[in-house]
Amino acid sequence: MPVKTYRPITPSLRYTATSSFEEITKKKPEKSLLTTRKRTGGRNNRGRITSRGRGGGHKQRIRQIDFKRRSFGVKASVVAIEYDPIRTARLALLQYTDGTKAYILAPNGLKVGALVVSGAGSPVEVGNCLPLKEIPTAMQIHNLELTLGKGAQLVRSAGAAATVMAFDDGYAQVKLPSGEIRKIHEKCIATIGQVGNLDHSKIVLGKAGRSRYLGRKPITRAVAKNPVDHPMGGGEGKTSGGGHPVTPWGVITRGYKTRAKRKTSNRFIVQRRTSKKK
Predict the structure, then answer these.
(1) Is 32 exposed, middle or buried (0-12, 13-18, 19+ CB in 10 A)?
(2) Which phi and psi angles does 15 have, rounded to 5°?
(3) Domain spans in the chain, listed from the N-terminal domain onward
(4) Where are the alpha helices (DSSP H) in 111-251?
(5) Alpha carbons 175 and 203: distance in angstroms, whole number
(6) Is the dihedral of CA 16, 22, 28, 34 positive or negative?
(7) Tens-of-pLDDT digits for all 278 residues of the chain?
(8) Is the dihedral of CA 62, 68, 71, 75 positive or negative?
């Protein structure tokens, strides 16, 4: 899944890098698994902007993905590898032996024609979904369930993978991509392998227009605003005010911990995520 670069016949193409889409085998999505996507433009039900910098973008449709994999014991063959405009990972279209179809996140190395199965007792192979207690330690997993029966919530972006570290008192200790080691119930399910599309991190948009295609609008810098609009606004010439960076509502933005100190799920965290600063 290499990226594609271009001759710099325009300034924006000089650094542009896009996916080559070599792994895509089917261009048109499965109609029975599509739903329309309603855009909000960052506005709530009262019409007020609650999420800044959103709006526009290319029309997209939602692919219904099976994050629960509840067809236990029913084998499915991989019919196609498809593109999903909403997420970074690729999708694998499954055809079950009972005739039903479903989308799953395509793991790295899963090819068209491969057979996958979910449930207890399934082989430990790429694309198969098993309870954590049946997965060997040091095995890469993704599509990880956090709450039993809710479906996969963790490790779903392109190139992501978690690792089973150990088992203790009905829980599995899993190392997440962030570096955090967390206890997760051993009956929660996970999919074997690493999420595909590993080269997604090498993509370079190249121009502001491609960011607008994704529905991302530019945001005015705080220091360029007036004092009435932002705490960091105002001042003669270029100045940041000398204070700590804050949001428009005065909340500190860098280094300020927003997680509740007495959150009940703290007891499941064995080791906090590693800092990326060196």
Answers:
(1) exposed
(2) -115, 0
(3) 3-38+54-201, 223-271
(4) 208-213
(5) 26
(6) negative
(7) 689 999 999 999 999 999 999 999 999 999 999 999 999 999 999 999 999 999 999 999 999 999 999 999 999 999 999 999 999 999 999 999 988 999 999 999 999 999 999 999 999 999 999 999 999 999 999 999 999 999 999 999 999 999 999 999 999 999 999 999 999 999 999 999 999 999 999 999 999 999 999 999 999 999 999 999 999 988 888 776 678 899 999 999 988 888 898 999 999 999 998 766 54
(8) positive
CATH code, residues 3-38+54-201:
2.40.50.140
Q: In this structure, are residues 19 and 3 in contact, taking their beta carbons and an 8 Å threshold?
A: yes
In which residue are the tokens 């972006």 written? 157
Which CATH code is given to the segment(s) 223-271? 4.10.950.10
Instruction: Report angle CA 274, 276, 278 to the nearest 5 degrees.
Output: 110
Q: Where are the beta strands (DSSP E) in 169-263?
A: 171-175, 181-185, 189-192
- What is d(CA 29, CA 43) in angstroms, rounded to the nearest whole number? 29
1 is written with which tokens? 């899944």
Contact 172, 186 (CB under 8 A): yes
As beta bridge partners, residue 72 has 118
User: How many angstroms from the chain centroid is the CA of residue 122?
Assistant: 26
Tokens encoding 59? 């029309």
Amino acid at 150: K
Q: Which of 100, 96, 59, 64 is nearest to 82 (CA)?
A: 64
Measure the CA–CA gap between 113 and 2, rounded to whole angstroms.
Answer: 22
Q: Which pLDDT belongs to residue 278?
A: 46
